[in-house]
Design brief:
Strand order of the largest sheet: 1-2-3-4-5-9-8-7-6
Shape: globular
Number of helices: 4
Strand content: 35-45%
Order of helices and strands: HEEEEEHHEEEEH
Number of domains: 1
Oligomer: single chain
Distance between the termini: 36 Å
């Protein structure tokens, strides 16, 4: 079971123990979801699911699909000393996105969601979340960069540790909060994200 006191290596080990089973469970769900909504034609289906693993971890995953594309997002989450914390992991890819409790507090506050239930907040986050485009900023120590990550409803600010392929999502700001050089980055990264979605996802 993931606990707040774990270091990154311990957290990765715990996630790896779970992930094959979680992914297999999600694929069973996907099969039933496709059957329930066939034929898709022009429909887009977004469904978010909760899963409690045999290793006593809370997972949440999403299927986002239309007739051309099927996409998944996976988070494991827990309540730490400071509140809701989550880690996004990826099939066949070593990156981890670590969402701090501060990130979720600002996400809730700045999008004016007013949600008190952590699980409900995660469902809203997952329903809205699809992809980021990253701009790496200054290198604050060897192999560690600050970043600006654009997404559809705002921007994540945080740090990237290259050696661990680890993105720490420290906070969230909305587009209308951007200023100075951030506005130029927003224009560029929005164009990148739009191109990416149009080329690969075709869902937005």
């Amino acid at each position: 079971m993931i606990v707040p006191a774990m270091n990154l290596a311990e957290m990765r080990t715990e996630i790896d123990k779970d992930f094959e089973i979680v992914e297999r469970k999600s694929l069973y769900v996907l099969k039933d979801l496709k059957k329930a909504h066939a034929p898709l034609r022009q429909k887009r289906i977004i469904q978010v699911y909760d899963y409690f693993s045999k290793f006593k971890n809370n997972w949440i995953f999403k299927w986002d699909m239309d007739k051309k594309v099927t996409l998944s997002v996976y988070l494991v989450w827990y309540i730490g000393d400071r509140g809701l914390t989550a880690v996004q992991t990826f099939p066949h890819h070593p990156s981890l996105f670590y969402y701090t409790s501060h990130y979720f507090k600002r996400y809730n506050e700045r999008l004016k969601l007013g949600i008190n239930d952590p699980k409900k907040l995660l469902h809203v986050f997952m329903h809205n979340h699809l992809a980021y485009t990253f701009q790496y900023l200054e290198e604050i120590s060897p192999g560690v960069w600050k970043f600006f990550a654009y997404t559809k409803n705002g921007v994540a600010l945080g740090t990237y540790i290259k050696s661990d392929n680890y993105y720490k999502m420290n906070t969230f700001i909305t587009h209308d909060m951007l200023k100075g050089d951030q506005l130029e980055m927003e224009t560029f990264k929005k164009a990148e994200l739009d191109k990416y979605l149009a080329t690969y996802h075709k869902l937005d």
